Amino acid sequence: MNTSVSPKPATKPRQNREARQQHILDATARCVRQSGFHGASMSSIAQEAGMSVGVIYRYFANKEAIIEAIVANDLAEMGEKFAEFDDIPDENLIDHLVDIIPIAIEHKYNCGKSALALEVLAEAARNPNVAAILKKSEAKEREMITPLLRRIYGHDIDISTLLARNEVIGMIFDGMLVRSVCAPDVDRDQMIKWLRKVVRYAFEMKDD
Question: Is 10 within a domain?
Fold first, then answer.
């Protein structure tokens, strides 16, 4: 008689904490896009994630904490992009910035990401906690971009002038979030062509 015991099937490994957190963030993003910030309740997020509300609270104290984590992810992704400039000679920085404009447009003209970003911005206008999250992220983003701008404009540029130029450029790219909703079918090739001209001028213009 064969008394050998068949091995038990391997159990599916538990997701690590980071993977579960990201799963919750993705579910939240979908819920916010579909139902708005207030319509995306913790229960609806839990249902979208296929988890119980209790499990969600193990990872995030509230919905604002989830939004803070989403913003932190975006900031980390931005940091990786800025790191790519470290190996580019100063004299080639503007050319590189102009060359990657199609990537920036592809990122901004994304209805899903735009809907989420606009919802968070709208909430920040009336919710001081969310506003504080965005202001903190903005400050960190400024810390990343300032060294790059100094390489472009020169290290002796006045900080107020540098930040003003950065703000104007930010207006252009942040404005794409709105335009991606209002004019999603714009001719991308034409937009890339003219945006390259505008960005190059913005970076090369001299103070009067």
Answer: no
Secondary structure tally for the chain: helices H, strands E:
10, 0
Residues 105 and 141 both lie in one domain? yes
Identify whether residues 140 and 76 lie together within a single domain.
yes
For 62-121, the pLDDT digits (tens) are 999 999 999 999 999 889 988 989 999 999 999 999 999 998 888 888 878 888 899 999
The CA distances from residue 119 to 10, 54, 137, 144, 164, in Å, are 43, 25, 16, 25, 26
Residue pair 111/179 in contact by the 8 Å Cβ criterion: no
Q: How far apart are CA 88 and CA 2, in angstroms?
A: 69
Pair (143, 120) in one structural domain: yes
Domain that holds residue 161: 64-204
> What angle do helix axes 159-182 and 128-153 make, rounded to 10 degrees?
120
Distance CA 207, CA 203 (A): 11
The pTM assigned to this predicted structure is 0.80
